[in-house]
Amino acid sequence: MARWEPGARERLVLAAVDLFTEQGYDTTTVTQIAERAGVTKSTFFRHFADKRDLLVAGQETLSRLLTEGIAEAPAGAGPLDAVGAGLVRASSAMGPLNRELGPRIKAAVAVSEELQQRDALKSVGLAAAMTAALITRGVPDPVAALAAEIGVLAFKRGFAQWSEGDRDDDHELAPYTLAALAELRAAGAALSQV
Amino acid sequence: MARWEPGARERLVLAAVDLFTEQGYDTTTVTQIAERAGVTKSTFFRHFADKRDLLVAGQETLSRLLTEGIAEAPAGAGPLDAVGAGLVRASSAMGPLNRELGPRIKAAVAVSEELQQRDALKSVGLAAAMTAALITRGVPDPVAALAAEIGVLAFKRGFAQWSEGDRDDDHELAPYTLAALAELRAAGAALSQV
User: Fold this and answer.
1) Chain B residues with CB inside 8 Å of A192's CB?
2) Where in the chain is the DNA-binding region found (chains A, B) (predicted)?
3) If pLDDT is split at 50, 70 and 90, which confidence band does B2 have?
């Protein structure tokens, strides 16, 4: 299989994440990102409104896919099965770039309080969106909130295992997030018994 | 019962939260906070290192109390009972000021992305600290992570009900956070059955 070759948008994201890791989010400029990616500044602005947009663009898509999957799950599906449908929908949008970026974003976040805050707000936003989608399905409030937190944990844990594992295989993300969901479902059963 | 009278430290926190709500976190200065609280700037700096410190001081205490409560729960306590011990320890430190501030902080956070990020990072930090405290007790990883998320949800939900309810009673916080924990435990049992 030929190695995956990133286009301009992908190169910009990779360059930005590497620069954030090396010198921090705050001190990295759009000019530096474009230079590192080997494109012009005007190419940057064809793809992104600003440096911040580069990080939030993916987040909005993720939130939309998770909630769409939950909304479109069969009417009889239980809350965690609906969450599973959301995970499958969101996972299917994650390709080689996301997998390759995973450990690099983790490294960039580790050294930047600004990025830690963004990352935390992203988790909270995903949980809120999933809670709302479950409540729309008629799931009562505390159950919906808990199922949504389980969904966020499952996505994070599955994504981490997928992106930190052997990236030369061509495994998709969905089996990883579904395995994490099954593990958390079992953990929930264990917790309710003690 | 006499109305509770705040001291300088408490007046500074109240003034800051009101100013954050009125004009945003970024544009509020230490000078304005001190003026509104009716104290000098040097009094401000006797209590807090800077504007940011005013928000994070309480968070560190909360995290410490939650994890101490978990660590000191009886050896035979299950994960959620240990979380309950953490909630009791942390709740006991919350008095009239915290109760009065609850809705005001919520209003300030609602209008400030900066404060939303801080608030989100606080939740993530509390969950990580509780997960670590549970793992130290020998709780296996996915169960610990889930129990910690349940603990954070229970604290947030219990605190919201306590601070948004009738604040003229002298109820303590602990029964609210423990009731929220019981509700989430039942939600977990419901989720694992479907």
Assistant:
1) 185-186, 188-189, 192
2) 29-48
3) very low
